Amino acid sequence: MAEGKIKNWFVRFTAYNTAHVVHQQEQVNSCGIACILMINLKMKKGLMAAGMAATAAVSVVPIIGGFLGVDLGTKVLDYAVKTEPQVYKIYGDVVGTVYDGTSYTNASNHPAVLEKLGCGQWEAFWAGGAGVSAAIKDAVAAGAPCIVHVTWKAGGAHFVVVDEVVNIGGLDWAMVNDPADGDIHVTLLSPGSAPSYDAGAGNFSGWIVRRK
């Protein structure tokens, strides 16, 4: 079970002294689901760390403590780390149809899925191209990552997660967790205009999913 839980998860470091855990999407259009997985983990990582520490402490007790430690560790992992198929099912329940990752998700449904995962209250928010940089910065400053919608110039769309914003020389840079390649794309949050993404291949559309 542990092996399945950590499938497609990567730890990434940046030149800005930041560290991130990124999930690479498992289906061609499961970027939204992958972003929900990342939000779920990032929102619960503090509890997971505390739980794992408790697991280690309990496990040093002979025999019975060992079994309790394994059981506690499993419960902590199950709570904080979900698999794509698990969230496909939750998304399908929200929209009332079977979902398998081969079609796009709708950002308006992401808040309900996050709530069912125990992540609290969320909302799909239209900031517009001129306001999306500020909206992302404000969402992260409030203590939670956000999902950002990207539109491609060649057509189509994508979802990514921003979990940190770093200011260097007066400029704000978003640490973009991209499920397409499981990597971090450091992206300038241009004030007053929609940020260009992935070497100009797309732009932030103006939609984000943020915690209320």
Automatic annotation (TrEMBL):
Keywords, ordered alphabetically: Membrane, Transmembrane, Transmembrane helix
Parts of the chain that traverse the membrane: 47-70
Superkingdom in the source lineage: Bacteria
Protein name: Peptidase C39-like domain-containing protein
